[in-house]
Design goal:
Elements: E1 7-10, E2 15-20, E3 29-34, E4 45-48, E5 53-58, E6 64-72, E7 81-82, E8 86-91, E9 95-104, E10 110-115, E11 125-133, E12 137-139, E13 143-145
Parallel strand pairs: 1-8
Antiparallel strand pairs: 2-5, 3-4, 3-6, 6-7, 6-8, 9-10, 9-11, 12-13
C-alpha cells in the first residue's frame, strides 16, 4: 500500500494501493488484514487478482493506529504468502447521529423510519439511533442513507449516549 510508506488518513477517505503476487500466473484473491495476521482473524477486504496483481482503492480501513498487510492464500498451484506490514493511522471523521421514532404495522413491517408521532396500540414503535457519515440522511420510507450502510466504508464504533433535555 502506498509504496510501503506510512498511511495517515481521515476515516472514510479512500486509499489507493497495488499488490503484486509473484509469479503473475497466480490466481485467486488477496486480502488486506490488520497485522499480525493470525489464523481465523478476519480480513478487512478481499480483492481479486488479475494477472497476479490488483490496483484499486478502499475506504474500508477501520479507525485507529495499527499495521496492515496483504495476504495471498494461494491457489491450486502456488502457495500463500504475506507482504511486509505498513503502518496506518486512521483519524476519526465527522459523523451525524439521528434519533428517530420508527413505527410499524401489526405485522412488524416499518411504516415510517422517522415518524413525528405514533398511535398507542397500533403496531409497534421504538426509538432508533443511527450514526452515519457527515453526508448521511434519513428517509421516512427507507431509513438511513450513508456510506456505511451501502458498505462503501467501515461502520462507526464507539458509544452513543442518550440524555433528556428540558425543553420548557
Amino acid at each position: 500500500m502506498n509504496g510501503g510508506a506510512a498511511v495517515n488518513i481521515t476515516h472514510g477517505s479512500a486509499v489507493s494501493f497495488s499488490i503484486n503476487v509473484t509469479p503473475s500466473a497466480a490466481t485467486g484473491a488477496v486480502a488486506l488484514m490488520v497485522a499480525p495476521a493470525m489464523p481465523g482473524k478476519p480480513g478487512i477486504a478481499a480483492f481479486p487478482l488479475t494477472s497476479g496483481a490488483v490496483a484499486t482503492s478502499t475506504a474500508l480501513l477501520p479507525g485507529g493506529s495499527y499495521s496492515i498487510l496483504a495476504h495471498y492464500s494461494g491457489d491450486s498451484i502456488y502457495g500463500g504468502s504475506y507482504s511486509n506490514s505498513v503502518p496506518v493511522t486512521v483519524s476519526p471523521e465527522t459523523s451525524t447521529a439521528f434519533v428517530n421514532l420508527v413505527t410499524t404495522n401489526v405485522n412488524g413491517v416499518p411504516t415510517s423510519y422517522s415518524a413525528s408521532s405514533a398511535t398507542y396500540g397500533v403496531g409497534y414503535q421504538f426509538l432508533r439511533v443511527d450514526v452515519g457519515d457527515v453526508n448521511a440522511s434519513v428517509s421516512a420510507s427507507t431509513g438511513i442513507s450513508s456510506q456505511y450502510f451501502s458498505r462503501k466504508e467501515s461502520c462507526p464504533t464507539g458509544k452513543v449516549v442518550l440524555s433528556t433535555r428540558d425543553l420548557s
